[in-house]
Amino acid sequence: MRTTRLVGLLLVAAGAGGCAEGGSSPSQPSPGEGVTPSAAGGPAAFQARPVLAVQGRDLDDSAVEPGLVRRLETLDCLRKPPTTNAPTAEAMLACDARGAGFLLGPAGVDGGVEQAEVVAVRGGGYAVQVDLDRASADALGDLVGGLVGSEGRFAVVVDGIVVDLPSAADGVGASLQVGGDWTRAEADDVAARLT
Predict the structure, then answer these.
(1) What pTM did the predictor assign?
(2) ∠ CA 30-36-40, rounded to 5°
(3) Which portions of the chain have biased composition (kind: Low complexity) (predicted)?
């Protein structure tokens, strides 16, 4: 997939793993509040997680477990792409389509996709319009609410791949768009994995 970017988060309603080396989850922090569990019991294809650190940037070692910092620093996304999301209560190492690595916190949202539809974006390209159920929209609102004022970002993760990095300042709702500069085939692939 080509580089992804946030097209926009749309306020619609009132409430509104990973690429870990060795194939295991990097850590088991306490469960996030407001998490909407997937119906199947395992991690869902769609998750929203806070971004704790980005590979290659100065890391605040005091805020992140040292073992996770070392794993993030040595993460090779181009050689070992992710295929699944980590369980909701665990932090995870993940990659985006360009090969950038991220350390993500426990999932604030796990599943809850009611519909995923491919939409054309003005100026060319395609995005996926994702409609969330009420519980997942509320959980996403809680996640974003905890990031407001901290310049924090959250990651939209689909099958272990970071597909978008919205800012908490972008707002949140029961419907959001991810992508925007994808081809039709790329957008169709993401939408199919969400439904």
Answers:
(1) 0.73
(2) 105
(3) 22-34
**Which stretch of DSSP H or E encloses residue 188?**
helix 184-194
Q: Which tokens hold the place of 92?
A: 């995870």
In the chain, the number of structural domains is 1
- 3 is a domain residue: no
What does the CA dihedral 6, 92, 159, 128 come to, rounded to 10 degrees?
Answer: -10
| Distance set, CA 159 to CA 43, 150, 189 (Å) | 9, 27, 11
CA atoms within 13 A on the CB side of 139: 25
pLDDT tens readout for residues 84-118: 888 899 888 999 988 889 999 999 999 999 999 99
Range of the domain at 12: 8-194
Q: What is the mean pLDDT of residues 62-70?
A: 75
Q: For the domain that residue 114 is a member of, what is the CATH number?
A: 3.30.1360.200
Q: Is residue 43 part of a domain?
A: yes
Alpha helices (H) along 5-160: 66-74, 134-147
Q: Say if 1 falls within a structural domain.
A: no
